[in-house]
Amino acid sequence: MLHLIVFLVFGAICVAGAVNLLVQSHPINSALSLITVMGSLAVEYLLLGAEFVAVVQVIIYAGAIMVLFVFVIMLLNAGAEERTQGSRVAMILGVPGTLLGSLLSAWVLLQHSGTRAVHVGAMPGPPKEIAQLLFHDFLLPFEVTSILVLIAIMGAVVLAAHSESAPQPKKEG
Amino acid sequence: MVPLSYYLVLSGILFTCGVTGFLIKRNIITIFMSIELMLNGVNLSFVAFAAQWHTLSGQVFVFFVMVVAAAEAAVGLAIIIAVYRTCETLNVDQINLLKL
Q1: Do B16 and A68 touch (CB under 8 A)?
Q2: What is the rounded CA–CA span in Å between residue A85 and residue A134?
Q3: Mean pLDDT of B2-27
Q4: Which residue among B56, B69, B80 sits closest to A124, beta carbon to beta carbon?
Q5: Beta bridge partners of A117
Q6: Interface-testing mutation among A30, A108, A153, A168, with chain B (most B C-beta atoms within 10 A)
Q7: In the predicted model, what is the mean pLDDT of residues A128-136?
Q8: Which listed residue, A67, A151, A152, B62, has the most CB atoms within 10 A of its CB?
Q9: Local confidence band at B34 (pLDDT 50, 70, 90 cut-offs)
Q10: Cβ distance B22 to B30 under 8 Å?
Q11: Which of A125, A142, A117 is nearest to A51 (CA)?
């Protein structure tokens, strides 16, 4: 019972943050509500017994990625977004469509996925077994992701660097 | 005890919020954040199914998804900085250099 209450409270915080991300017009407010979503998702992972994923969620998502987002928002001095004709069309078509989709998927899931309870702390293994999986069974994908991150670092530096030698695109008045 | 379907519904709600943000937002950074929201929703269902089937592979896959998301965020934000230098706007309606 207590677990259900904790799940519902943090699920409500999660959904509220996600809706707030949509409602806010300034990107920095959206970024802060996304951090709220990620923090409460970490609690949901803890409820499922996935301590490793919860810690990685806080460190990588709420830490590294969101710091990057906030840094870029501040670097580009992003203001509130302006509304145009196209955005109104997207709003009219998008909001009812996604509401319909989410209601449909929620109904199907509640009807057909069974209501077997997930025990709290249902995950079988301690972090030792995850390390065994990660560094033994999934060693090749792990090394491939390390190469991917290396390439991403170099790509980000190349893309974001000021190129003095390259010709700047002419602005037309 | 929390039923599995509750986790899946929460994950679906987060995913559809991400899709809605992707459709209705006009700031390129907020659109990018909506993509991260979608990835978070998918991660939740990965972990819920892993708990249901008593396997740890789901957690490892969530780890890989997070690493790919980090790489994607780094490259994507660098691209956003480059776009802002060229177009001097973050509104996706005004980034139309490819149009004739």
Answers
A1: no
A2: 49
A3: 88
A4: B56
A5: B3
A6: A30
A7: 85
A8: B62
A9: very high
A10: no
A11: A125
> With a CB-CB cutoff of 8 Å, which residues 24-83 of chain B face chain A?
24-27, 29-30, 32-34, 36-37, 40, 43-44, 47-48, 50-52, 54-57, 59-60, 62-64, 66-75, 77-82
Q: How many CB atoms lie within 10 A of CB A65?
A: 23
Count of positions (residues) in chain A: 173
CA–CA distances in Å: residue A124 to residues A45, A132, B8, B83: 14, 13, 20, 46
pLDDT of A160 higher than 90: no
A-chain residues within 8 Å CB-CB of B62?
50, 53, 56
Is the pLDDT reported for residue A33 higher than 90? yes
What is the rounded average pLDDT for all residues in chain B?
Answer: 88
pLDDT of residue A100: 85
User: What pLDDT sits at residue A37?
Assistant: 94
Given an 8 Å threshold on Cβ–Cβ distance, is A114 in contact with B67?
no
What average pLDDT score do residues A85-99 get? 75
Give B69→chain A minimum CA distance, Å: 8
This complex has an ipTM of: 0.91
B56 and A87 in contact by Cβ < 8 A? no
**Sign of the C-alpha dihedral computed for residues A8, A11, A12 and A13 taken in this order:** positive
Judging contacts by C-beta atoms under 8 Å, the chain A residues touching residue B79 are: 159
State the Cα–Cα distance between residues A24 and A133, nearest whole angstrom: 41
pLDDT confidence of residue A163:
66
A122 versus A64: which is more confidently predicted? Answer: A64
Phi, psi of B3 (to 5 degrees): -65, 155
Q: What's this model's pTM, rounded to 2 decimal places?
A: 0.86
Residue at token pair 């490793």: A52
